[in-house]
Amino acid sequence: MSIEVRNLRKTFGSFVALDNISLEMPTGELVALLGPSGSGKTTLLRIIAGLEMPDAGEVHFDREEATNRSASERKVGFVFQHYALFRHMTVFENVAFGLRVRPRKLRPPEAQIRSRVEELLKLVQLEWSGKRYPSQLSGGQRQRVALARALAVEPRVLLLDEPFGALDAKVREELRRWLRRLHDELHITSIFVTHDQEEALEVANRVVVLNNGKIEQAGTPEELYHNPATPFVYNFLGNVNLFHGRIEDGHIYVRGMPIALSPNGHELAHVNGKDAVVYVRPHLLDIALSPNGKASFPATVKHINAAGSKVKVELESQWGDPVQVELDHERYRELGIQRDARVYLKPRENKVFIYQI
Amino acid sequence: MSSAEVRAPNSIASTPVHFRRATAERPLTRVILIGTALLFLSLFLIIPVIAVFSEALAKGVGVYFASITNPEALSAIRLTLLAAAIAVPLNLVFGLAASWSIARFEFPCKNLLTTLIDLPFAVSPVISGMIYVLMFGAQGLLGPWLIAHNIHIIFAVPGIVLATVFVTFPYVARELIPVMEASGTDEEEAAITLGASGWQTFFRITVPKVKWALLYGVVICNARAMGEFGAVSVVSGHILGLTVTMPLYVEVLYNDYQFTASFAVASLLTLLALVTLIAKRLLGGDAAELPLAAEAPPVTAGREAA
Amino acid sequence: MSQPAKANVRRSLLPGFSLTMGYTIVYLSLIALIPLSTLFLETSGIGWTRFWQVVLSPRVLAAYRLSLGASLAGASINSVFGVIVAWTLVRYDFPFKSVIDALVDLPFALPTSVAGITLTAIYARNGWIGHLLVPLGIEVAFTRLGVVVALTFIGLPFVVRTIQPVLHNLEIELEEAAATLGASRWQTFQRVIAPSLAPAVITGFALAFARALAEYGSVVFISGNMPMRTEVVPLLIMTELEQFNYQAATAIALVMLVISFTMLFAINLLQRWTSIRHVFG
To answer: Is the pLDDT of residue B11 over 80?
Structure first.
């Protein structure tokens, strides 16, 4: 089922949670709503679910207006951050709940309910847990039960509100992969909310970045990471180094260092004498032991973290700015640098992001 | 993208009138529930309050004041105040001592102690009074000895005070214990390590932390002390002008068919109850609602020690 | 921080244990325990035959029946309406809500004789509510119904105040989850909310029941105190005391005490049991 929201606006008192949001989500996609706290992502999800009412705007399911329908009428599956399992019911009864509360005419016979529940518990790999109570399960298991419960009523769309937020890092990773696989198998339109950019980029096939109630950018994970539309997106998705500078005849001068304008900065070529900010990802800065052209600047190594797939080096530029660089172990061994070493950094110019302020 | 897609909407995009939050009842249900609740509360709470004052003033303000200022009434008021003036401070000290020992230390049979403190709640007021009669009454355990020494407890003021102390002793402790347990021992322990003595710690750290609970405990203890009827009735002997407290006086007047006067005295007690309710609202009243320690950081103790 | 020591008092950093503990125990003994023990002393002097004679006499049995029955009725009424009252106070807004919320504690703060005369005045044949009920053939004052009314009054705050915090802390997500799964509001209440409230309702019921059993002041005015008909146990005890029949009074009181203590014990167990269940939730 496709979902479309148009011109949604929602305020809580004087706080604007959503500011004229319009978005289309085609059938079968796994969409991530990504943003910091207060960006409006959970509000948007809850409005789609029918748990909140927008002040203005519309929600459409499969091209039909659904704005007036209540949550129980919309047939959405909702998974809460803290599971919201019914504590006094067994796992089986939890999953069966949606089927058992159907009006008599639509209610399937008990035998059918039983087989459906068992099928779902098998899908989430919890066949053994039917008679247990939620309190007897781990966090990750509870979330899987919550998922099974939501799927039991055959929803047209699955909505997940920071589903892995309350879990340990390892469990989170497992469940992410698991959700991805589940989606590949079931193909239900799914939308999940997260503040974890790694999660969004890893799991979803479409990411929508929200900030202050507005959409910063929407696209595939690759698009967002490699072609960020705004500094916010750039900053939010991964680490970044910031340098302030001025644009002067085709170059941006950072503390007197000229950097040729990058592909995404060419439209700024005609702007002279304006301030700009250069964003450089840690893996896009090269370390050399000697000066290396006009755009290289000196820095001192402050801290090295070689425990990981990449080596993370923290440096201080000669002007006192903190800089982070990522390199692979081979290059690190080649350089043989240590704490307090004096090195030269140079951005790979064709990959920096320049934003005029 | 947050572009403005200009497309003619299929329907009127207005704020829907009949949308109901997923977790709200139908308006009709809401009205019925509120109506039922209000009806029930009117029958049992609101109308009685109004009735007290209405009956008290039924014969006019003059009679009202006469009812509460005649010598018998004044003596009843005095006795009530006396009983409260003795019971409340005694129970305050008890409450502080008990809550300190229970909330700050671990010891065996702690549960037994807390249950014992709840004793008066398990015992009918009549029985509460009765135990003192059994002990100090003319035919009681100590009866003969007391008569021999011409000491009067039952059917005299001391008996009334004793009974009042018994039925109200849990109140301060019950308010303090949860709050003291919830606020933890860290601050007091910090004060001790900084060199403060036990008393200093107690008055400068502990008491300010629990002051709202303490205040409410005193208010409720006082209300119950001044309002106790059953227990006092047993030990009092109903001697007008001598062993009649205000709640008893209400009964005496009523049994004497002096209804308006009875309600007049009752109205004073009702005012006290209403003041207590207001105090509860202002002071939080419930341990769960009271704010945890906010003021008086151990800096004070530190400066002391320095 | 608090690791219980093996079997002795934990050597705490804080001073004052002996002082406060000592004072507490002495006070408790003097005020409560020693006087209470006279009860048992007196009882031991009765002898079983006399004891059963008193306790099983028709008048006493009638009083027990009335006390237990009316207390049960009052606590039940409070349980049903208490849920409704707590629900409206927690979930809805209406004018003067905070005043009414505060007023719920009135039966707790009001002297029982004041409650007694007021309820009698209101529900008497010519009282504000009484006169409305007379044409319907319902008499409240000086009947068993009057006793139930008084005992409902006295137990009102117990159920409401026990349920309110539980209702307040109910996670709204549970109700939202039920809604997204297609449950109607009533189904959600039945299957999700009510089970969570049940322990609190039972505790409140037990508290109201225990309170009603012990009640004297508010009942003695409205009941008319007719032996065998509208005489409650506390009044019976009082009557025996006034006639200096200490043994009879003690015997009757003892049975009451046993029932009350059992109830208190059960309530404590209930509260511990329900809070443990929820700890894991």
So the answer is: no
Q: What is the mean pLDDT of chain B?
A: 82
Which residue in chain A is spatially nearest to C197 when comparing CA positions?
A: A88
Interface contact C105, partner A, CB < 8 A: no
Is B246 touching C (CB cutoff 8 A)?
A: yes
- Which member of C23, C34, C36 has the closest CB to residue B97? C23
pLDDT band of B112, cuts 50, 70, 90: confident
Mention every residue, 6+ apart, whose C-beta is less than 8 A from residue A187: A28
Give which of A86, A137, A160 to mutate to test C binding, by max C Cβ within 10 Å: A86
pLDDT tens track for B160-218: 999 999 999 999 998 899 888 888 788 888 888 888 888 888 888 888 888 888 999 99
pLDDT at B89 over 50: yes
- B176 φ/ψ angles, rounded to the nearest 5 degrees: -80, -40
Mean pLDDT in residue range A89-99: 93
pLDDT tens figures, A159-213: 999 999 888 888 898 889 888 988 988 889 999 999 999 899 999 999 999 999 9
Across the interface, whether the CB atoms of C257 and B122 are under 8 A apart is answered: yes
Q: Provide DSSP, B101-121.
A: HHHH---TTHHHHHHHHTHHH
What whole-number distance in Å separates Cα of residue C200 and Cα of residue C161? 10
CA C140/CA B213 separation, integer angstroms: 40
The minimal CB distance from B262 to the residues C14, C84, C117 is found for: C117
Query: What pLDDT, on the 0 to 100 scale, is given for residue A262?
Result: 61
Q: How many residue pairs from chains B and C have C-beta atoms closer than 8 A? A: 299
Q: How far is CA B155 from CA B129, B237, C236, in A?
A: 11, 5, 20
Q: Which stretches of B71-142 are DSSP H helices?
A: 71-104, 110-117, 119-122, 125-136
**C176–A78: do the CB atoms touch at under 8 Å?**
yes
Radius of gyration of chain A (CA): 25
Residues of C in contact with B259 (CB under 8 A): 117, 121
Residue A211, H or E segment? strand A206-211
Instruction: State the average pLDDT over residues B157-162.
Output: 92
Say if residue B55 is exposed, middle or buried (CB neighbours under 10 Å; 0-12, 13-18, 19+).
buried
Q: Which residues of A touch C178 (CB under 8 A)?
A: 86, 97, 101
pLDDT tens column, C106-126: 999 999 999 999 999 999 988
Yes or no: say if A311 and A355 are a contact pair by the CB < 8 Å rule: no
The alpha-carbon gap from C157 to the nearest alpha carbon of chain B, in Å, equals 11
Asked if the C-beta of A20 comes within 8 angstroms of chain B's C-beta atoms, the answer is yes
Contact B169 C31 (CB under 8 A): yes
The DSSP line for chain C is --PPPSSS----SS--HHHHHHHHHHHHIIIIIHHHHHHHHHHHTT-HHHHHHHHTSHHHHHHHHHHHHHHHHHHHHHHHHHHHHHHHHHH---TTHHHHHHHTTHHHHS-HHHHHHHHHHHHSTTSTTHHHHGGGT---TTSHHHHHHHHHHHHHHHHHHHHHHHHHTS-HHHHHHHHHTT--HHHHIIIIIHHHHHHHHHHHHHHHHHHHHH--HHHHHHS---TTTS--HHHHHHHHHHTT-HHHHHHHHHHHHHHHHHHHHHHHHHHHHHHHHHH--
Q: How many CB atoms lie within 10 A of CB B17?
A: 6
Are B41 and C100 inside 8 Å of each other by CB?
Answer: yes
Confidence band of A237 (pLDDT split at 50, 70, 90) = confident
pLDDT band at C274 (very low <50, low <70, confident <90, very high): low
- C176: nearest CA partner in chain A: A51
Residue A112 CA from chain centroid, whole number: 38
Helices and strands (DSSP H and E) totals, chain B: 18, 0
